[in-house]
Amino acid sequence: ARTRQPTDGQLARQIRMRTLELLSPARDAETAIAAIDHGADAVYMGASSHGARSAAANSIDDIRRVAEYAHQYGARLYVTVNTIIYDDETSKVERLVHDLYRAGADALIVQDMALLRMELPPIALHASTQCDTRTPEKAKFLADCGFSQIVLARELTLKEIAAVHEATDIPLEVFVHGALCVSYSGDCHASCVATGRSANRGECAQMCRLSYDLANGDGNILSKGKHLLSLRDMNRLSYLSDMADAGVSSFKIEGRLKDAGYVKNVTAAYSMALDAIVAANPGKYQRASHGHASITFTPDVKKSFNRGFTDYFLCGPRPERPISSPDTPKSTGVPVGTVKGSGKGYITVDTTEALHNGDGLCYMTACGTFHGFRVNRVEGNRVFPASTEHIPAGAMLMRNNDAEWEAMLRGKTAERRIDIDMRLGLTEQGRITLGVRDGYGNEAITVSDTAITPEQAQKPQAEVRMAAMAKLGDTIFRLRSLEDTIPDSTFIAASALTQLRRKAVEAFVHARKATYRHDYRRTENKEAAIPGGNRLDYHSNVANQLAETFYREHGANHIEYALETGMPRNGDITVMTTRHCIQREMGACLKEGGGNTAKGPLYLVRGKSRWRLDFDCKECRMKVIATGRG
Question: Is the pTM of this model over 0.85?
């Protein structure tokens, strides 16, 4: 068998086109494989440790299995090693990275700069969103230091993303869907300060999802028991083209703790949307991986877990309200009908939706809280809850769990195939040749071991040979076309055709493996200077001597260690910095002509805990402060 790699012209065309990558989350190997089957160009998953989601760790064997599966399609596997690292852990992390590299991981998503001072293999490094990259200067610094891809802060607008793109020469990764952290990622210390469980160590206690009272300096309660820091979920399906034009290359779905059904549905929705963008812009964009995912259902992101949707700050620094979900941190679902009345053990519902046994429904109670229940059975328009419910007539019912939909997603819902073209012929010596190629510059040509003696066929053979070549069911390939140059009247035994097809496909698989393009760590510019001055405080999350060495070599002369290290620190601590403003969400933004009902100082109160809110109206930022600590 002979193989052929992409020509210089093919590579040049690929380089000219912008590559768009759909990056999906995976809590485990099965979810990662499902994401690839449903159209992901890359998946990201946690390593066995230091992955910022302690409940989503994976073994080296699972990493290897996912890498092998992904690489068949030219898809990539990124592994998160994005917690801060303590001094006594650096050797362990170094060994872990070597294991991940040998297992086939394409890149590491990291936060701690210690990794740039470890003895590592040449694996590519991506700067995690935990690096809190908000500015072109920060992005350029990280690129200069050897990062191959940068995950930008979720809070950036299209204009701000475009400015970063202009300042850098590496791919930009931006979140497009899923749960939102209210604080700039990597700069949230609320969980660490309140509970000792650090988000930067993968143990976030989700303080932003709790309920709080909002009080003013006089102790008056302005809002009671609301989830004032809990944001809606991100949904940017309608803005993917704008994001691509702004310079985004990698479109990231949040959700390493989500189940496979969620990942299937959301991945399929975004993959179809990116396919449409590529089709509408020939020669401008291309997908980052190979093949086509055939989906057996119509994706609908509203049917998967969500707290209501927002595009967040993508369209500007003052987005349309609401962006928060103050009534509940749980999934709110979609409206399905209103309650008409009730009887013994049931409620009657005015709805055009088909409700199912096992559905999850919820509604707003009279006291302003969100309450949910499971459906035991449905008879016509009568719904029998599994628990005793007292729902007033006129209440809107929301479905946040569609039992039939979820059951469907647990089955096989996609098949991914790569289209191939074949060319069948005979040499002058009577040997059969079979060439196999795809649309990505890969080709293999196989010649039969022995010559055949041509025989006159009793009936035309073109369709017979087509059927033999198309039998690719146990492979990832699908026959798109066959150029058959053998005379239609020539008979070739089916066994000979089958044997040649198998050998040709095997050779083609090896050709694709040989041309898989690995990314490697970029060279670090040791002259690059830290932007913003030479003093680093606890917000920089320096937790070990290697990170300290890195920053000092790049110009820092004063470094305050991370809160997690237990270094003594007096005074107030900013536990969150947010672009979300509670005053604006309440309609009390002074810039927008709001009233003074929420005029400061304001405090979030929960039990004995009391956090001050500081408002920087010039920059449209809110800070959550833990006061008087020492």
Answer: yes
